[in-house]
Amino acid sequence: MKILVTGATGYIGKRLIPLLLNDGHTIVCPVRDKKRVESYYKNQKNVTLIEADFLNEKTLNAIPKDIDAAYYLIHSMSNSAKEFHALEEKCAFNFKNFAEKSDVKQVIYLSGITNDTKLSKHLLSRKNVEKALASEKYALTTFKAGIIVGSGSSSFEIIRDIVEKLPAMIAPKWLNTKTQPLAIRDVLSFLHRSLAREELYNTSHDIFGPEVLTYKEMLLQFADVRKLKRYILTVPVMTPKLSSYWLYFVTSTSYKLASTLVNSMGVEVIGVKSNINTLLDVKPMSYKKAVKLAFRKIEQNSIVSSWKDSYVSSGKLKNYVHEFVNVPEYGCFKDFKKRKVKNREKALDKIWAIGGETGWYYGTFLWKIRGFVDQFFGGAGLRRGRRHPTELNAGDALDFWRVIYADKENGKLLLYAEMVLPGEAWLEFKVEDGTIYQTATFRPHGLAGRLYWYSVIPFHWFVFNGMINNINK
User: Fold this and answer.
1) Is residue 252 within 8 Å of 310, Cβ to Cβ?
2) pLDDT tens string 44-60
């Protein structure tokens, strides 16, 4: 079958596509920025990347019409726009218009459980998208999931941050909200096995784990898996705004995402039972087992996708990494260093391992201070780390940087700063002709930008010298 997978760069899409390829299907992926994903799918012969944006209907003409089925995995939960629900509905209507003109027989949509009488804006938007996708020209199969548990998922990483950082905590009352967490493996099983199943055409099913747990119970069970003793006291006095700040400062989430999550976490996410588990032969695993399997993936350095690589984890970049590939020259300050390379392969290995747990090779405490300052002003700080200790692809998050270009074979890595700055910054590493070139570029915004650059020059001298020297050791 020829299958259209939207959201191919997202947390679910990156994990679903290999399952479909193993079945021998041909995959068509409409993406807003081909440069971001070309390296990820370059060795997949049956994957076609099409540059298209479902917010711009004209671009959808590039997508082939001979599609047999489609997965709708577009999700704007953390979009910086206040009216994200309007953008979600626009995407859905544009997708529907395209699908109705194509050969698509079935559309499979992953939504959220929406049974509570008082829904958050996020969950209400998910419900409206389902209505918008309904069509008489093709069959719609909808799966509604609650909290998804898996390595790299936002809920898993947020809970991990809270449990591992805080031995005791005074927490908001929404920790007593009930939910039914579902393992990412089970989510993928539902999505994968429902393809071309006619008995599921024009049906909607809640999918959920076997346990009803409060967020507090999830934290304590997570701590039990990690063999940590944790104490939690919930208080009713935290406003949604205070709760958002609490989540933002304790975890690696952005403030905008924290705010969205807090509004959703006050809603009970309890599914309605159906025969879907029997139909697709899926037996959802327990929460503790899902957590254990997630850590197995982490220990094996085999995390396929992470929510932190989404642009909304910082909010500074929007859609296109290639817009930042050409580093500006005019009106910029630069810190340029070069060294004769002692061992090209080892130098490149060090460059590709930079950041995260490895650190930045010199002045670690200065990098941490800069991270704290960034977080204080609402930035990502150093909390995001990196998805894999040695692999980098365009679009990946790397502490408070974003990977814009990564070509190890040709010896070039380009990073763009997502920290809070009075300007824009790039950091480039290049190894060629027996030399390592390291260039930090800063384009100031007005007087504040210029004052900022001059104030950090002394730190740059030590940090950037030490960094290139240690890379070349």
Assistant:
1) no
2) 789 999 989 898 889 99
